[in-house]
Amino acid sequence: MAQDRLTDNENRFYTNKIPNKTTELKLTGRKDGTDSELLNSKIAALSKAGGGIIQIKKGTYYLIDIILQSNIHIKIDKDVMIEPYFDKNAKKAASNIFEVGKEFLVENVAITNTDEDNENQSTWFSVNFPKGDYRMKIITGCNVRNFKFSGFKITDSYTPFSCIALNLPDSKDRNEVAFGGIVKNILLTNSHVGYGVIQIQAGKSILCKNLEGIGGVTMRVETGSGETGKENVLTVDDIVGRNIKVKNGDAAFNVSPHRVDQGRVDVEGITAINSSFAVQIAAGFKDRKETGVDNIGTFDSRSYIGDITVTGGKGAQVKSKDFIYFDCKERTEMETKCQNPDFESTPGRSIGVVRTNATLASGCKEGSDGGCYEVVIGKITKTNPDFLMPENFTYKNMAVNGCDKTPAKRSDDCLENPKKESSKKQWEPKEGKGKKGKKKGNN
Asked: Do 385 and 399 touch, CB atoms closer than 8 A?
């Protein structure tokens, strides 16, 4: 019997209903909030008039809290660089460059490069997140219908938060989640190990396509933490991923339900190069938030993850929780080695292909170890044998036992983790401080 699969036809997810009338908006490039005001004003006026296309031409622009409204397409030239604007006088730090549907319903919108379906990275616009202690997303999407985000390259500096987040709106209404959208043609470099191109906490009928991360977890479908975990109401379903790639990171794809029983995912064309894993499948569990619903989450057993191609090697971002798979000698080496600039991972070598604790084969026991569920795993191709674990699946019971548990001290010449400053200064980008670290290229 043929596998029941979710289809990936783009027309199923997004239809261009935006009026084909273009207005060029000339921004100033000033670091004073002016350009955010100009863009927000143009969006509001054009949306009220029925909608259209706003064209942004060559330049470097500093933007924050851009509120997208219905029937607006923002097209951005390939020679545009966008950086977040940090208002030193703001009482509360902002965390979004673009906000879509957080406070009200938004329909028929797009943020793309000018040549919007061109997969050539030279046609994409650029985003830069400078060094500093802050948390920032390029786009937060909530109560939005029929949308498209595509065609940009992000240079991060290991900051927390995924670049795109789909989550509940301010109303917390589970019926007002992102529905019908495409996220494609995006490259992220210098990603924090725990984040990546996109995280989906709440969204239905979403196509993620041609996403690549250097570092981190490129596509993360992790739900049930925070507000989404307060009710056992499905917020994620019909999530399709195609051509999802990671290099020198943690994994290309991660799925984790926490406390909520969720729907189907269908992801294929997964590539991992010199990363800890290609895929991570987490059992449901009750996180530490006391306000969470009394439930252990799962994903639909019809979910599919396949066409996985992995190349093992050095340069992976390895989390400390995965040190358990190394023998005692190599584990000590990992514990004493300088961490990566995210201060939550250590440069190491590829561990395996699929890490899971959700299946019966992994030892999951319903009710004690967490929410157990099975997903269909398709073809796995290893291009070389350079992995810590020879098996395709890595389970917690494969951990190496008997090692000295005395905390190891890291080298004195490692970069120090910068301490949190006042909330006002915390959001001001600055150069990292600390002693010069070792080169990590061949660790």
From this structure: no
